[in-house]
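Thread: "does anyone have the structure for this chain?"

Original post by V.I.:
We have the sequence but no experimental structure in hand. Need at least a predicted one for the grant figures.
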Amino acid sequence: MRAALGALSGLVTGASALAVAELVAAAVRPEAGPVNAVGGAFIDRTPPWLKDFAVRNFGTNDKLVLQLGILALLAVFAMAVGVVALRHRPAGFAAVLVFGAVGAVAAVERPGGGPLDALPSVVGAVSACGVLQLLVGRLTFRPSPAAEGADGTPEGTEGTEGTDGTPGGSFDRRGFVIAATAAVAASAGIGALGSRLNGSGAAEAAASRAAIVLPAPASPARPVPAGAELRVRGLGPFTTPTKEFYRVDTALVVPRIDAGGWRLRIRGKGVTRPLTMSFDDLLRRELIERDITLTCVSNEVGGPYVGNARWIGVRLADLLREAGVEPPSKGGPADQLVARSVDGMTIGSPVETVMDGRDALLALGMNGEPLPFDHGFPVRMVVPGLYGYVSACKWLQDLELTTFADYDAYWVKRSWSRRAPVKTESRIDTPRPFASPKAGVVPVAGVAWAQHRGIARVEVRVDGGDWHTARLAAQDTRDTWRQWVWEWRAPTGSHTLEVRATDLHGYTQTEKRVGTVPDGATGWHSVVIAVT
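Reply from O.Q.:
Generated one for you, C-alpha cells below.
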C-alpha cells in the first residue's frame, strides 16, 4: 500500500510540475513549456528513417502521438521518483531537478530559444520538490504512539512493518489523502489558468485573422479549365479543400500570431536597402493569385502529402529586387535565401530559383481566405517546383540573404539535400489497393505532377505488360498537378496496376525505388486488386 501511494505521490508531483511550468510558459512563450520543448528536441534529433515511419504511419497525427508518448514516459518516471523518495528523499528531489534540467536545456536549445525559455522547467521543478516533500512526508514511517485505535493503530494511520516483519510504526494516511487532493486541485487550477492565458493570445490572433479582408488581386488566377477535373468516382477534386490539405511540420504548438503586430525583415548579403514590412504593408502591394501544387519531400511513392490550392500573395522576387538583391547569375553575392519562422524553423531556398520568373509568393491567403493558422498565418512562402522543406516556410518573420557555403538550414543539418526540385511523379487514386471491382470496364485514375515543368503523358500497365496511354485532363498551369484516367477492360483475377508519368521536359519517371531521403522518393506507384 505504501509503495503504491508513493507512486501516486510521484504522479501528482509530476502533474503539478507540468501545470506550474505551463503557467510560466504562458508568460514566456508556449514553445518553452517542458512537453513542447522536450518534444521539439526529440523531433530535432529524430533520424530521417524514424521521421518517415512516423509520417507514414500516423500522418498529421504524428505530433499528437509524440506528445502522448512523452506524457506516458513522464508518468512512469514520476511514479518511479515517488517510490524512490519513500526510501531516500534526497534522491527523489535530485530526480525531480534532473527532470527540470532536461526540460530547461531542451527549451534553450530549441530554434529561437533563449535563457528565459529555461524558466518554465526550472520553476516547475522547484515547485515539484515542495509538492513531493508535502506528500512523501505524510508517508514517512513514524513509531506507533501509545494510544491506539480499535484495530491496534492510531486512527487515520496505517500500520507498517519493520524489515524483520514485526510491526514498526505507521504513516498518516488521512493527511496524505488531504494533501494529495489539495495538490491535485491546485494543479488543475494552475493548469486551467495557464491554458486561459495561452488562449487569450490565441483569441487575439483569431480576431486579427477574422478581421482581414483580402483585396481583389491585381493579377487574378485564370479560371480552372472546364476539363481540368475528371468526374471519376474515387478521384479527389482538382483543388484540395483547405481542411483536407496536408500538414507536415515540426511545430508541436501551432503559432498563433496577431497580424497587427507581425513584421517581416529582409536583410543580409547583397541587400542594399533592408526592408521591414507589416501585414498591412503587404496587403497594400500588388497581389497576385495563382493555382500551385505543393509537395512534401516526405511523400513516399503514391503518398498523400501533395495538394493543390489557390494562393494569393506578393511576388517574392519583387520584394527582393526592392531590397537591392540580384541573383547569382547577375552578380549577386548571395545564393541562398534563409527564411525564418516565428518558432525558429529555418528553410533555405536557392536565390536563383525564387528570382527566375516563376510565381514565388509570400502568400497571405489560401483558397479565397486568409491563411489558416495550421498553414502559416499570417504569411508563408510558396515556391512552385521546390519541395516544401526548401521553400515553403510557414509563420514567416525573417528573410536573410546568405550562401549555401556559409549556412545550413534546419533540414540540411539533418542529412537532407540543400537543393530539392520536385521530382516527376504519379499516383493511382482509384481503384484503391486490394479493391474488388467487377469485371468489365474499370476506370483507373489518379494524378501526376512535375511542378514548374508540367505533365505531358501518363501511362498505365497491368501485370507488367504493355504500357497504355491514359487520357489527360486539361492542363491548368505547369505549376499544378494533372488528373488522368485510363478505361481498362478488366478480366477476373488478381492484377497489379502500375503508373508512370512523363513531364514536358521529356523526362519519364524512373522505375527505381528510392526513399524520401535526401531529396525525395522515386519509383512507379502500383496497386494490387482482385477483379471479381
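V.I.: this helps a lot. DSSP finds ten helices and 20 strands in the chain.
O.Q.: and The radius of gyration is 29 Å.
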